[in-house]
Amino acid sequence: IFFEIKMLEFVVEIESRPLGVRFAHADRGETVLVHLVLENKLGHKLGLLPGDILIAVNNKSVLDIKSTEALNLFRQTQCPFNASFRRFDDDDEFDDDDDDELNDTNNNDTNNNDNNDDNTNNNETNNDNNNETDNKVDDSNVNV
Asked: 44, exposed or middle or buried, with CB in 10 Å at 0-12, 13-18, 19+?
């Protein structure tokens, strides 16, 4: 089995805080990665995604220092500043299986159109309730 892993490095300009991003320490304290990105916050608008790895702050690599030092540098750098990230995107055959399952689900949904009218209102109500819950994220726990 052949797995192709694509790597993307990109730079974002951070002009203000809070960023709306929670970081995590990985690889036994060697790596800082994005753990959570709040929707409609600056980090989300900059295109950050969970799993992105912090690799530099103002073109200074953080790959050769501990994650606590790297995160402190990120937090203490005055705005505006540039942050570089690395993102891995793996294209493997398992993605195709997931797509097939989604297609099967979509086909089942098409076949059940008679029941959809009754369920639509219930789903919209559930989605409204979920959105209210999603909007109650406690920003005080967001690290950056």
From this structure: middle
Long-range contacts of 67-76 (CB under 8 A, 24+ apart): 67/25, 67/26, 67/27, 67/29, 67/30, 67/31, 67/32, 68/25, 68/29, 70/32, 71/23, 71/25, 71/32, 71/143, 74/23, 74/32, 74/144, 75/143, 75/144
**Tokens of residue 29, six digits:** 């304290």
Say how many C-beta atoms besides its own lie within 10 A of residue 17's C-beta. Answer: 12
Pairing between strand 53-57 and 60-61? antiparallel
Per-residue pLDDT of the chain (144 residues; tens, 9 = 90+): 777 778 999 999 999 999 999 999 999 999 999 999 999 999 999 999 999 999 999 999 999 999 999 999 999 999 999 999 999 986 544 444 334 443 443 444 444 444 434 433 344 334 443 333 333 333 333 356
Cα(143)–Cα(21) distance, rounded to whole angstroms? 7
Q: Which residue has the tokens 């979920």?
A: 130
